[in-house]
Design a protein that fits this description.
Layout (H helix, E strand, L loop, with lengths): L1 H18 L3 E7 L3 E8 L5 E8 L5 E12 L8 E14 L3 E14 L4 E7 L2 E7 L2 E4 L10 E7 L1
Antiparallel strand pairs: 1-2, 1-10, 2-3, 3-4, 4-5, 5-6, 6-7, 6-8, 7-10, 8-9
Length: 153
């Protein structure tokens, strides 16, 4: 019986620890259209993973590690955040692409579980195909702002 109680207590503790990390899932629109997922890593820093298109004619998967730079108290309700961070992206268009990226953004989380954000996410990298390789010029369109709408849980 003691073993059962110990295992039950450990499972309950792990469940609380897993749900204590805020997460968000939603859509990111701009030069690209992506499904977006955020996972906080303790504190305020978070990893963002995106899956979708880049420039509407390519497939792209990317991930960034974002540092929360500031959380100004501009309103009495909700929560503001200014973040930035580095990341990587893999894609396929004319050939396989690999890129490094940077992201900088501003987000607002309402009192209810809705998060709105605007950000820039340029990519710098290379294409490789059977005929050779070239610079990934489409990544410069990441300087066009994107808008995200996410459900925070």
């Amino acid at each position: 019986m003691k073993r059962f109680l110990l295992i039950a207590a450990m499972m309950l503790g792990m469940a609380f620890a897993a749900t204590a990390q805020p997460k968000a899932i939603g859509i990111r629109w701009g030069w690209n259209t992506e499904i977006s997922y955020q996972h906080n890593l303790g504190g305020e820093n978070f990893v963002e993973a995106n899956l979708g298109t880049f420039g509407f004619n390519s497939f792209d998967i990317s991930s960034t590690y974002n540092f929360m730079i500031a959380q100004p108290a501009w309103t009495n309700e909700g929560k503001w955040g200014i973040y930035a961070g580095p990341g990587v992206a893999l894609g396929f268009n004319r050939g396989a692409s690999i890129a490094i990226q940077g992201q900088v953004g501003l987000e607002y989380t309402f009192e209810f579980p809705l998060q709105l954000a605007v950000d820039l996410k340029p990519q710098f990298g290379l294409y490789a195909w059977s005929g050779g390789a070239s610079f990934f010029t489409e990544g410069m369109f990441g300087f066009i702002p994107s808008i995200s709408v996410r459900y925070r849980f």
